[in-house]
């Protein structure tokens, strides 16, 4: 079997991840981002849902002008799109809006209306996973705002990992941050904030799949309510899941 340039690059990246994990498993967000800026060659992207605007600001302190990928599924709240625009204006980042091949009308024609209500796993696969998979092929490392406190499925997330799903290095600098730390960072740095966060939506996704939650409830319990689905497929949890199965 021959080894391709891609295989070699992946092997090198995996070695980089293993070395970084030994040294930075318990590092702060600034420490891991300083390491990324100094060490990782190639293109780097931040993925932001615009519920996590502390992330693009923090990364821009180490990587000015960094590309921020925003997945425009066609189903976002207007407030989320307005937050994206404010982030692009006020932070030292370059917003790159990524869209699915099919707009919502074309998806409705092909798969029937409101696929999200019948098969959210298929809808997320079409509107999130496929376009992000295509976009991430251009990058060597992506940075996400995943935090361990967000849900049990995220409780074991490391600060850096090799992303098997998308085939590149994944860095999660906020992984150990609490809600209070995020709020303090947003306030201290005067960062644009999605207004829905203070209107009963502690976790924000597409409008049809995001419900208001009661104070103190699981922040992600408003996502895909009525289904067992808890993740869109971008950040798979370890172990078996039953994504998209409707609750009886
Ligand atoms: S969150 Fe809902 S509307 Fe958005 S892509 Fe997934 S199923 Fe479709």
Summary tags:
6 strands, binds iron/sulfur cluster, alpha/beta, 248 residues
Strand proportion: 5-15%
> What radius of gyration results from the CA coordinates?
18 Å
Order of helices and strands: HHEHEHEHHHEEEH
Bound molecules: iron/sulfur cluster
Major β-sheet annotation: 6 strands, mixed
CATH-scheme architecture: 3-Layer(aba) Sandwich
Stretches where pLDDT is under 50 for at least 5 consecutive residues are: 238-248
Give a structural overview.
With 248 residues, the protein is an alpha/beta fold. It has a single domain (5-199), classed as Rossmann fold. The chain has eight helices and six strands. It has helices at 5-24, 29-39, 54-62, 78-90, 104-111, 115-118, 120-136, 179-188, and strands at 44-47, 66-71, 93-98, 141-143, 160-163, 168-171. The protein has a six-stranded mixed sheet with strand order 3-2-1-4-6-5. Strand 1 (44-47), helix 3 and strand 2 form a beta-alpha-beta unit. Mean pLDDT is 89; it is low at 238-248. Bound molecules: iron/sulfur cluster. Iron/sulfur cluster is lined by residues 73, 75, 116, 120, 123-124, 127-128, 205-206, 208-209, 232.
SSE map:
Elements: H1 5-24, H2 29-39, E1 44-47, H3 54-62, E2 66-71, H4 78-90, E3 93-98, H5 104-111, H6 115-118, H7 120-136, E4 141-143, E5 160-163, E6 168-171, H8 179-188
Parallel strand pairs: 1-2, 1-4, 2-3, 4-6
Antiparallel strand pairs: 5-6
The chain binds iron/sulfur cluster.
